[in-house]
Amino acid sequence: MTLDLGQWIVIGFCAALIIGYIHGYYYNCKKAEKILSWLRPGLEKWGKVTAGEKLAGMATGGRLAVSQSMAPFRRIEAIYLLEPRENLLFWLFHRLQGRRDELVLKITLPKASRTEIEVKRHGRSDFTTPVKNGSEQIKVFLERHGRAVFHLALRRGQPNLFVQAHLPELMSEPAEAFLTALQGLA
Predict the structure, then answer these.
(1) What average pLDDT does this structure show over 96-104?
(2) What pLDDT, on the 0 to 100 scale, is given for residue 142?
């Protein structure tokens, strides 16, 4: 039995997908270990950190939480989402959307915020919602971390403080520095 060119192309494409899956899986495992070793010490400053858990479903990443954290935070939930490197087609689509590895922080404060402020940024453009006068802490925070942060919300409801940021930019400094900067918003 001989294979024609079309069959060889299909076999080659499937082999590329299998090799890509194996490489992406191991790369994401190493990346998750690196993120955990960066994130855990930063969270430990605020209290006892959970053992951590993988995310359910198709998402690649994990979750850590500090249930009874020290002031000014009551609870911190940190979720890191990794690019879907295991599936080359999904990874390419993810990249074309401008998405990368990201960190999501859901922080509950002892007291609800008096004001509600939400700022978002799409891609590398400026934030879609300008920060109003009287929000100096947010302006200062975004001047320092605005390159990494693309969504920041201070709310009356829980979680009171919601942050989404690109991990590669955040990991250039210790996680403790970023969380300490968030303390100023509480």
Answers:
(1) 89
(2) 84
